[in-house]
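2024-03-11 09:14:02 INFO queue: dequeued item ABC transporter permease, len=293
2024-03-11 09:14:02 INFO validating residues
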Amino acid sequence: MTTLLPPVHAPAAAASTAAPAPSRLPGKPGVRPALLLAVLPLLLIAAWAVAPGLFTGQDPISGVPQEKFLPPGAGHWFGTDHLGRDVFARVVHGTAQTFLTAGLAVSIGLLAGTAVGLFAATAGRAADAVAMRLVDVLLAVPGFLIALIIVTASSPGPVSLGIGVGIASIASFARVVRAEVLRVRNLEFVEAAFLNGGTYWSVLRRHLLPNAAGPVLALVAVDLGAAILVISSLGFLGFGAPPPAPEWGLMIAEGRQYLGTAWWMTSLPGLVIVLTVLLLAALGRRLLTLLRY
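2024-03-11 09:14:37 INFO prediction written
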């Protein structure tokens, strides 16, 4: 890694460029209740992934043929499917698979995008131009199409699905990291750190990354929801976990031919996907409000 570019001096007042004080955060009105409204349902869904047995005692793989196509009720909250399997149990047990694949995708996008964004922001104008042209190429192609190409070129499955979706998300993380590092490096406390003898890595670790992390963490939440949506869509097309795995997209694909007689097989898993994506998007917006200085 080459040396950090010298900060560009701006005529802003010292008070506006000083290191932000955490005491500003509690004073923002309406942030905490709205944040809880997004976090609490997400914690419940996350608990499905960690301990599905606490929420259902039904078998997500084996069904009871005599109980097929039962509508939602007290015994089966989301009804049963064409094989007599409990749909709610399959949704709950499928949460871990969907979240693990989405987590792999976000991890790839975050790590690779952060590296590209830091390189573009600190390695000079030529490196910035080259890196951002590559990012523009990725942004010019829809992320779903990039993931689909990568998955079809390899063997379909959760791992290749996560890698494909992760590569498609590198560009968005790279742009956000680059923009935030460029913003933070012009602040006076960063310049003061260099004048006091700070090295590139020490300034990066103590000042640049911590003060640029807020929007990146918000993007993690939003991108996790987007990854779940893409993974479910590709699972619907048959590129995810094979049957009889309880995967969200696969469940919708299995129930589409029974829409007229068993609407709950597709509608209720689809509702869980939509709510999860919307809650993660709301969490991302609230995190941006809290953490953006």
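2024-03-11 09:14:37 INFO annotate: Confidence is low (pLDDT under 50) at residues 8-30.
2024-03-11 09:14:38 INFO item closed
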